[in-house]
Amino acid sequence: xxxxxxxxxxxxxxxxxxxxxxxxxxxxxxxxxxxxxxxxxxxxxxxxxxxxxxxxxxxxxxxxxxxxxxxxxxxxxxxxxxxxxxxxxxxxxxxxxxxxxxxxxxxxxxxxxxxxxxxxxxxxxxxxxxxxxxxxxxxxxxxxxxxxxxxxxxxxxxxxxxxxxxxxxxxxxxxxxxxxxxxxxxxxxxxxxxxxxxxxxxxxxxxxxxxxxxxxxxxxxxxxxxxxxxxxxxxxxxxxxxxxxxxxxxxxxxxxxxxxxxxxxxxxxxxxxxxxxxxxxxxxxxxxxxxxxxxxxxxxxxxxxxxxxxxxxxxxxxxxxxxxxxxxxxxxxxxxxxxxxxxxxxxxxxxxxxxxxxxxxxxxxxxxxxxxxxxxxxxxxxxxxxxxxxxxxxxxxxxxxxxxxxxxxxxxxxxxxxxxxxxxxxxxxxxxxxxxxxxxxxxxxxxxxxxxxxxxxxxxxxxxxxxxxxxxxxxxxxxxxxxxxxxxxxxxxxxxxxxxxxxxxxxxxxxx
Length: 512
Fold this sequence. Notes:
Layout: E1 7-13, E2 46-50, H1 58-62, E3 65-67, E4 87-91, E5 95-99, E6 104-108, E7 114-118, H2 127-130, E8 149-156, E9 162-165, H3 172-179, E10 197-203, E11 206-212, H4 227-230, E12 239-245, H5 255-269, E13 277-282, H6 287-302, E14 306-309, H7 318-337, E15 357-360, E16 366-369, H8 371-379, H9 385-398, H10 400-406, E17 414-417, E18 424-427, H11 464-468, H12 491-511
Parallel strand pairs: 1-3, 2-4, 9-11, 9-12, 12-13, 13-14, 16-17
Antiparallel strand pairs: 1-8, 2-7, 5-6, 5-8, 10-11, 15-16, 17-18
């Protein structure tokens, strides 16, 4: 059974926000006292937190789908719904988070480090929050937003100071067992080590960790063997210790050749060229191993390496090797202490950003995209005509209708808000009306108290006798005395017209 997993796919689904509440305050002698619906609760987040007691991603290998709880809907009497509970997932120190496209999102190093893997949806506003001076009694509320759904790749990179690399059966596991309290599996056949091992080493006052990864062979950078799968665990190390087998029984191998092969694989992997190297000539407890170490030690020193003949079996030379590791670690930590942090530059979105884009399609339809528009659509209850009218008002205020006209949209054009199967499709009209607009304003309820009612300005109407005295060429509408602007008359024409009218009126009275 697998006990060590360092790469998993996590499907994180945050909680949905609760819907807003539609409610009207009622009490004795005041059955319709105004809206009092509360807001929905926020959906729960999914968070990743570094826990020192977790050393593997095995739990997410068996259960990759994780979901947080949703928020509750709002209540009447101005009560908001409770928020959903956040789901906290524990990960090992050194976990790197990638999105499904391979972009790195977070590098979780340090106990207690938190990353929000998926954010919960916002709760919908109740009709109390939607009320305004023009919308006294909203008969609708906003829906809660769905929680964020993300497919994440979790990759574990061990946080170690020193990495032991080398051929299979070079003695790396024996070496880490000799200098620390780690107890890896040790056997006399290749690829005994199947997963990385960590050990804590103390050299004087310096305390550091050492990682032992599976052995590398020619072609490891292209995926051969096991070492390529675990080379990510040496990326954080301050130095690499090349463990060379001086007692190998294979005639076509020698420490110089092994070193060149491993170095070539590290170069092919990339990112490790600048790390300091220390050479450990292992198995000098064997007569042939000691002779081989004496033959190649000076050659390696001439190439600029620090060389230490050691024996994991007899512990010969291990003290000098560990103190050499400690010196490299001390230098690395001293340099890191004075390193300047990268300046974080915040680039907020411009305040005049329209928040949407209208794209003409080849089939004559139009697509509208934008985070603001999509959020409004998700919040709209399309079973409520007043809610649809509210969405139309918001889109018109944002300038969507003007942009559609600029792009060539006409009445009846198909408009798609969003992308894919979740897009909302409708036939566009320049002015979308709902039944609530017939009341004079969206959300106006004639049943409320008189102080809440809106009064329409009634235009003066002419009587039948006054209508008979109007001239068609003078008026725009026979029921109103307003003059047509295109028939503007000067003073002489008006006087002449009035004189003719008076004469006709006099003749009419005489005939009666």
